[in-house]
Specification:
The complex is a heterodimer. Chain A has 9 helices and 19 strands. Chain A is an alpha+beta fold. Chain A is globular, with a radius of gyration of 21 Å. Classes of the chains: A alpha+beta, B alpha+beta.
C-alpha cells in the first residue's frame, strides 16, 4: 500500500524533517535540531505538531444520538455541555480498548478524534453499532494541527482572535481567513495548548503563519517524550485490546453517573474490576541512574519473580533522567516500591513513582 | 599516531604503539540523534573483533557498539557515561569510548580509510 502524506508534507521536507512511517503515513520524527531541543522548546515556548494522520470523525443526528452513544461510551453525554470535550474509550464487551479518543459535543452532533492506526476500524465498529440512522463522516479533507507550550495562547490568539477565552477541554468554531476552524484547548504534552481542525488547502499557510509568529515545528519523537513525561498513554503501548480502562488506571475518565447503572459496552467488566480490583495496573517507573528501560522490558520483584512489563520507556529531557510506564501486579503498584528491570541480561534497580513525571501547566477550566 | 580507520559498524580507531583508541563516528551520532546513555566494556576484559563492546542509547532506541579489533580493554572514558551528550558534541575527539591493547595489528587492514568510509556512509544512509 502506498504511504500516505499529510497536507504539511512539503513543509516538513523544507524544514529538514527526518521521516518515519507511522500508521501508514510518512510523518516527521524530528527536524534538524533534534528531539531534546524540540522537547525543551515546547516546554518553554511553543511547538507545532502535525497530527493530521489522526481521525476526525463527525457524527450528526437528532437528540437520540446522545442516547445511542451512551450505549457505547462510558460518559454522561446527555449532560455534556455544548463545546465541552471528554477523554474516553471505544471498548469491546470485555472492556478491552479498541481505541482511546477525545469526544466533543458540537452543533447537532459530536466530533471524535481517533488514533491514526485505529481510525478506519473504529469507523466500522461505530457504523455497525449506530447503523445508518446518523450521518458519519471520517473527514479526510481536514488537517489537524496541535500547538503546545506556554507561548501558544499568545501566538494562536494573534491569528485567531478569541481562542484565549477557551477553557481547558472545551472547543469552538472560529472564523479565520474566510474559513471555519474548530479549535479545542487540549493536547498531549502536559502543557497548555490547542488543537486546530483546518481544511487541507489552508493548513500549510496557517502553519507558516504560526512559525512566523515564533512557534516551531516539532516531530513525533519529542511528542513521545513530552507525553511520557506527562504520564499520558499511547495506544498500542499502554493501551490495547487486552487492557481495560481500570487496569490502565484511567477510571477517572469514566463518568460517575454511568458506574452505578452501566449500560455501555464493557460496563459489566468495568464494574467488576472497580469492585474487586484489577490484577495488574499501569504505573510510573523511574530507573535508578541513567539506564533506559524500553518497551517489553521485564519487571521483577526482589524474589526474582516476574511481576510485570514496561510499555514505554525513554529519556525525559525535562526530568533529565530515564522514565517509563508499565504494568505491574497490583501488590507492587504502590509508589516507592522497589522493583528490578531486566535490561541486556542484567537486573537493574528502579522505583514505582507517581504520574506525571513532569507537572502539568494546563489552564484550569470548567471540567 | 596512525591514520584513522573506520568500520562498517561506524566505529573509528587510531593506533599508538599497540594501544588502539575506539569511538563512534560523527555520521553514527547523526543517525542516532541525541545520545542519552552509554555503557562501556569493563576494564581488564577481553573483546573480540566485531563483538559487542558497549551500548549507546538515543531518545529513540538502543544500539550496540562493536569493536573493530580484538584485544584487552585497558581504559574506558567515564566522562561519556556521566554526560552522554558529549558523544554528540565531539564524537571523533574527546568522546572516545575505550582503549584496547591489541593482539593482531593486521586486523586493521580490513578496515576503511576516511575516504572509503565517507563514501560507504553516504551510500548506506541514502
Amino acid at each position: 500500500m502506498e504511504i500516505k502524506k499529510t497536507s504539511l508534507n512539503k513543509l516538513h521536507q523544507s524544514n529538514n524533517a527526518k521521516f518515519v512511517e507511522f500508521a501508514g503515513y510518512e510523518m516527521p520524527i524530528q527536524y534538524s535540531k533534534g528531539i531534546i531541543e524540540e522537547h525543551k522548546f515546547t516546554r518553554s515556548n511553543s511547538g507545532i505538531f502535525d497530527v493530521s494522520h489522526m481521525g476526525q470523525l463527525f457524527i450528526y443526528g437528532d437528540e437520540s444520538l446522545s442516547k445511542e452513544l451512551e450505549k457505547i461510551f462510558p460518559l454522561d453525554l446527555k449532560n455534556l455541555k455544548q463545546n465541552c470535550s471528554k477523554y474516553s474509550f471505544l471498548m469491546n464487551e470485555d472492556a478491552g480498548i479498541y481505541d482511546d479518543l477525545i469526544i466533543t459535543k458540537i452543533d447537532e452532533g459530536y466530533l471524535i478524534i481517533l488514533n491514526a492506526a485505529c481510525k478506519d476500524k473504529d469507523f466500522d465498529i461505530l457504523f455497525n453499532l449506530l447503523g445508518s440512522k446518523f450521518k458519519m463522516n471520517l473527514d479526510n479533507n481536514r488537517s489537524l494541527i496541535a500547538i503546545q507550550g506556554p507561548k501558544s495562547v499568545e501566538i494562536l490568539n494573534s491569528i485567531i482572535n478569541g481562542v484565549d477565552q477557551l477553557n481547558f477541554m472545551t472547543g469552538n468554531w472560529f472564523d479565520s481567513d474566510n474559513q471555519k476552524l474548530f479549535v479545542t484547548r487540549s493536547g498531549y504534552t502536559g502543557e497548555d495548548g490547542f488543537e486546530i481542525s483546518i481544511s487541507n488547502d489552508k493548513a500549510e499557510k496557517f502553519v507558516e503563519n504560526l512559525i512566523e509568529k515564533g512557534a516551531q515545528l516539532i516531530g513525533l519523537g519529542a511528542r513521545d517524550t513530552l507525553r511520557l513525561e506527562a504520564g499520558l498513554c499511547l495506544y498500542g503501548h499502554e493501551l490495547d485490546i487486552n487492557k481495560t480502562p481500570v487496569e490502565a488506571n484511567l477510571k477517572w475518565a469514566i463518568s460517575k453517573s454511568r458506574l452505578s447503572n452501566g449500560g455501555f459496552i464493557g460496563s459489566k467488566k468495568i464494574m467488576n474490576q472497580i469492585q474487586d480490583g484489577a490484577s495488574q495496573i499501569r504505573v510510573g517507573i523511574k530507573p535508578e541512574g541513567r539506564l533506559i528501560a524500553r518497551e517489553k522490558t521485564k519487571i521483577f520483584n526482589d524474589a526474582d519473580k516476574q511481576i510485570g512489563e514496561i510499555t514505554s520507556g525513554t529519556f525525559g529531557p525535562s526530568v533529565n533522567g530515564p522514565i517509563a510506564m508499565g504494568y505491574v501486579d497490583k501488590e507492587f503498584s504502590k509508589v516507592d516500591t522497589k522493583i528490578l528491570l531486566e535490561v541486556r541480561g542484567k537486573k537493574h534497580p528502579a522505583n514505582i513513582c507517581a504520574l506525571p513525571f513532569y507537572k502539568k501547566n494546563y489552564v484550569k477550566g470548567v471540567n | 599516531m596512525s591514520e584513522v580507520k573506520f568500520s562498517k559498524e561506524h566505529e573509528w580507531i587510531t593506533l599508538e604503539g599497540d594501544v588502539a583508541t575506539i569511538g563512534i563516528t560523527k555520521h553514527a551520532t547523526e543517525m542516532l540523534g541525541d545520545i542519552v546513555f552509554a555503557e562501556l566494556p569493563e576494564k581488564g576484559s577481553n573483546v573480540e573483533k566485531d563483538g559487542t563492546a558497549g551500548v549507546v542509547e538515543s531518545t529513540k532506541a538502543a544500539s550496540d557498539v562493536y569493536t573493530p579489533v580484538s584485544g584487552e580493554v585497558v581504559d574506558t572514558n567515564q566522562s561519556i557515561v556521566d554526560d552522554p551528550a558529549k558523544i554528540n558534541e565531539d564524537p571523533e575527539g574527546g568522546a572516545w569510548f575505550f582503549k584496547l591493547k591489541i593482539k593482531d595489528t593486521s586486523e586493521l587492514d580490513t578496515l576503511m580509510n576516511k575516504e572509503e568510509y565517507d563514501k560507504f556512509a553516504k551510500e548506506t544512509s541514502s
